[in-house]
Amino acid sequence: MQPPQTGLSEREAAERLKRDGYNDIPSAERRSPLRVVLGVLREPMFALLLGAAAIYLTLGNLLEAALLAAFATMSVSVAVIQETRSERVLEKLRALSSPRALVVRDGSYRRIPGREVVTDDLMLIAEGDRVPADATVVRAVGLQVDESLLTGESVPVRKTSADEGSALQNPGGDDLPFIFAGTLVVSGTGSAIVTATGAHSAIGKIGRSLASIEIEPPRLHAQVRRVVQVAAIAGLGLSVAAVLLYGFLRGSWVDALLGGIGIAMSMLPEEFPLVLSVFMAMGAWRISRERVLTRKAAAIETLGAATVLCTDKTGTLTMNHMSVAQLQTLEESWVAAVGTEHAPLSQPLVKLVEIALLASALEPLDPMERALAEFAAACMQKDPRDQGALVHEYPIRPELLAMTKVWKHADRAIYVVCAKGAPEAISALCRASEPQKEAISRLTERMARNGMRVLGVAYAEHQDHELPPTPERFQFHFLGLLGFADPLREGAREAIRECQSAGVRVIMITGDYPATAQAIAHQAGIESRGIVTGDELEALSDASLGERIKVASVFARIAPQQKLKIVNALKAAGHVVAMTGDGVNDAPALKAAHIGIAMGGRGSDVAREASSIVLLDDDFGSIVRALRLGRRIYDNLRKAMIYIVAIHVPIAGLALFPLLLGQPILLTPMVIAFIELVIDPTCSVILEAEREERNIMSRPPRDPNSPLLAPALLVWGLVQGVLAFVCVAAVFFVAELRGLSEPEMRAITFVGLIAANIALILNNRSFGPSLFMAMARPNTAMWCSFGATAGLLALILFLPAARSLFGLGYLHFDDVLACIGLAAGLLLMLELIKPLWRSRLQF
């Protein structure tokens, strides 16, 4: 069947998009580069750098002041680049998370992002869709829309098709042909012509924003904020004490101020918030490359803790590419032969196909209806829909899982009523006798055991011009059953096996017949001691369901609203639940689950909005890849946190102990600023890009209540930092014993600290005990960063002007090699003690 209209051409749509812009509404969440810069300027590190520059300027040291100001600018630039990069990623994710639209372009259906809808587009809408633009309805079948976003009235309103010359009278209401952007289709189907988009729509004119993405997970953000606050308070108190001590004991208040600023800079872990935001944004981007959209960044944290994954069958475990595999009446059967043409059908089977086709949508979008239409076109010469007119439709209801359509043929005075749906629903419509019910059930069971999805078909004839309010009033006759084959997705069995090895239990929840569910579950490798049906579920108490759910991993004939009961039972048992869904009624379960996963291809916009993750290809394998990436992102985030704690210990130690021991200041604010420029990309680029650990999918899920900055993690970072400090301090004392000058001691200590920093990076690349395993994993960002650091260090050490600015002396190449050797010893020492901490860190 061709669409009722051809819609716009792609060329016309492109011209309108260029003229009117994207169908977007300005959002307050979008951060412009200026807002990012202003946010960075409020950071304490920037203020400390400017304070040090002001002191040097007061002393008349213009070059030092200019260099510190340049470092402050570079610090701002690095942060702005990272945050702008994150913002670009979030912008792409916002575009993906906008409502979708099914439009007609060049006579064909196309599913496009809602932001690409243009005026005069012909779009199709159905239950669960979020309307992407203002439009005039041209066809409506039981169409009801929730317009509370605009009117505040929660009761859905009916929509009718427009008469020619209709004009917009008011912003909503019953029996009007106008729908508006942001409103929700709660029932029925229809098609509409777009009249306004973006800021020109009704919702755009009042400046309402529809989409929202959390940039940072609140729990992690709160943890990091507390750590930074504690460190900042401790650093401020220590720096004030150091300034007073140095000033009173030595009388040099300028040096005291510079030393105090150095201590404050060294103890402020200002990388934590930046690393967190970058990891969450980049993590969402990496997951989106696996065809998984992360709508809420907090889901990235929860992914690694999931213990149960509840999945649908059709389209998730299976291909969702149906084909008619069997036709079955009470008297005869036809089974499709692979690789052969369709054999001629008997008259009863032809009628079965005809009535099923007449009971289907005129514009088939459902995979089974598309398969039926293709089958009918191949085995029938005439399309029965061309010989009559559709006069009425009875939609599927929760209490009657069947669709009924009433047709009027031109050459006949009677109405033909066609119904298809769940076999038990069709059996009930036909008021079948007990023997007939048993025969239908037996045939259904036999087909379902072969993994087929089974639909029943019935018809009735009606002479009265007045149609009854419900299809139960018709005198239906049972025609037969349709069996549809939907093969298992390639890789689904391996993905389930990987989930199980990772300690994640897979539960299949489907509306299919129990035998069909059991057959597909067995093929996919989901073993279950017993199947729970929807009727059984209703009869179980919460305690009984809790017991059954411990052993049952297949739930069949489950209504969407029953998924919520399953989720709550799993949560009550202490599980971290990931749940898939696609319909309007799935939204409560998706929202209740710790990780709601909506289907991007066939899912409703309501389900997408209630979820934290959207599968863009509806593939179960994508969920498993997201679980793997979620664990990798969380692992790498912990590596970055360990590294930040570790590197700040030697920096703080070298800034503090000269003041306590009466030694000259080793780390001036300028030197610390340079080191901070090395630390930022190390945290947010090198470790974020690190590959996953080998055992990432063979270890059990982590405890969801475990803090990111756990005590064991902090201690391990401190241990690394103390050892690094001891090594660098040893370099300083050896230099002092050799009688090196103050600038030379400062230079060799500076090089030793940079070398120790590289050792800490290499050590924290992997949680495993083998350095060679980590080195074998390619990390382009790391080598680029090392190269840039080595180049800058060479310029500082070997250019006299640069040495003078940093207050460093000349170093022989042997001294540099000695620092590198000491760093290698530090790395080897850390590798030897690392296995002692792996069990404590739960890696």
Summarize the structure.
The chain is α+β, with helices and mostly antiparallel strands and 843 residues long. It folds into 4 domains: 10-24 and 99-205, Calcium-transporting ATPase, cytoplasmic transduction domain A; 218-285 and 630-841, Calcium-transporting ATPase, transmembrane domain (Up-down Bundle), CATH 1.20.1110; 298-319 and 489-618, Rossmann fold; 323-485, Calcium-transporting ATPase, cytoplasmic domain N. The protein is 50% helix and 15% strand.
CATH architecture of the largest domain: Up-down Bundle
The total beta strand count reads 22
Q: What general form does the structure show?
A: elongated
Number of domains: 4
SSE class: alpha+beta
User: Separation of termini?
Assistant: 56 Å
Largest sheet: 8 strands, mixed
CATH topology of the largest domain: Calcium-transporting ATPase, transmembrane domain
Q: Order of strands across the biggest sheet?
A: 8-22-21-20-9-17-19-18
Gyration radius over CA: 34 Å
Level-1 CATH class name of the largest domain:
Mainly Alpha
